[in-house]
Amino acid sequence: MMEETRAKLIAAARKAFADKGYADASMDDLTAAAGLTRGALYHNFGDKRGLLAAVVDQIDGEMAARAQEQANRKGGSDWEKLLAEGRAYIELALEPEVQRIVLLDGPAFLGNPAQWPSQNTCLSATITTLERINKAGGIKPIDIEATARLLTGAALNAALWVAASEDPETVLSKAIEAFECLASGVLREQPDS
User: Which CA distances in Å does 104 have to 4, 15, 22, 97, 152?
Assistant: First the structure.
């Protein structure tokens, strides 16, 4: 029952935050849309900000999963998959729901995205991939955690830039090109393309 209540509130909030933005979404409207009371919101999330954190966590987790899925479909080496995953994550910044909730309202109301639990999951996955590449002798002798933090930070900041831009399509191509150039600097041998 509690999981069902949480799921209803998250779904209603996700729609309200996407349609109206966090600041303009009324707690009464979103609890009514879920068929629940304010008490259910407070009990499950503490407050509206706690509900936003849950919505951001859900969407950001979906973004990471979609980016990984897209990279796996393309195939290639661990390095090629890592770059494809970064590109896919940045490209998701073009989606209106992602833009508004995760990349604009999330940082404005929840603070530094690098501290979000979903970002720690991405960081852990990147560390694991870089360790595999390192064992195969594919990257320069640099600290793996530092490299992972900088690569995930670069992808996140590129997505934030795209989302906040007045011309997201143009910024997207610039952001991806710069991300790939920066990321490739850690390789022992530079890729041909």
Answer: 28, 15, 10, 10, 18
The predicted-structure confidence for 23-61, as pLDDT tens digits, reads as follows 999 998 889 999 998 899 999 999 999 999 999 999 998
**Cα(146)–Cα(27) distance, integer angstroms:** 40
What 8-state DSSP symbol labels residue 139? B
Residues near 35 by beta carbon (within 8 Å), at least 6 away in sequence: 8
State both tokens at 63: 């973004």
Kindly write down the DSSP assignment for every residue of 51-119, as one continuous string.
HHHHHHHHHHHHHHHHHHHHHHHH---HHHHHHHHHHHHHHGGGSHHIIIIIIIIHHHHH--GGGSHHH
Helices 38-45 and 48-74 cross at an angle (nearest 10°) of: 60
**Could you identify the residue written with the tokens 């979903």?**
118
Residue 64 in contact with residue 26, Cβ under 8 Å?
A: no
Q: Is the pTM of this model over 0.70?
A: yes
Dmax (CA) for the chain in angstroms is: 59
Structural contact between residues 164 and 108, judged by C-beta atoms closer than 8 angstroms: no
